[in-house]
Amino acid sequence: MRPFFVMSLLFGLAFGQTASLCAPSEYTIHVEKRECAYCLAINTTICAGFCMTRDSNGKKLLLKSALSQNVCTYKEMLYQTALIPGCPHHAVPYYSYPVALSCKCGKCNTDYSDCVRERVRTNYCTKPQKLCTV
């Protein structure tokens, strides 16, 4: 029984990266514009979850390739556009948002992600709410 346990442990350590829990997750975005009468609650999917990382206290002793700081990020995504109700004719009533189709553990792409830290924002409506399910 002991050799089986040791082999299982080694297998888990060697292939732990493939068992990362990074996947599309349901998320609600609340969008409102000052000119518009309503707040729009949009149901979408974002990438969220855990990715294995390797970081060492001895960074100066190791090659950069030995260090890994992966995040859960988009592998495939598309953009949807929603119409915010109650906007006057002079206001642009459209809002575009990403929809995660699949996710991966990888380097953070600053073209479409905030890679530094999570912004402190409130995700609620201050105006009457309309639900958008696209």
TrEMBL record:
PANTHER family: GLYCOPROTEIN HORMONE BETA CHAIN, THYROTROPIN SUBUNIT BETA
GO biological process, one term: G protein-coupled receptor signaling pathway
Family of this protein: Belongs to the glycoprotein hormones subunit beta family.
Residues in the signal sequence: 1-16
Assembly information from the UniProt record: Heterodimer of a common alpha chain and a unique beta chain which confers biological specificity to thyrotropin, lutropin, follitropin and gonadotropin.
GO molecular function, one term: hormone activity
Matching Gene3D superfamilies: Cystine-knot cytokines
GO cellular component, one term: cytoplasm
SMART domains according to UniProt: GHB
Subcellular location: Secreted
Full protein name: Thyrotropin subunit beta
Domain Glycoprotein hormone subunit beta: 21-125
Keyword entries, A-Z: Disulfide bond, Glycoprotein, Hormone, Secreted, Signal
PROSITE patterns from the UniProt entry: GLYCO_HORMONE_BETA_1 (PS00261), GLYCO_HORMONE_BETA_2 (PS00689)
Pfam short name (any one): Cys_knot
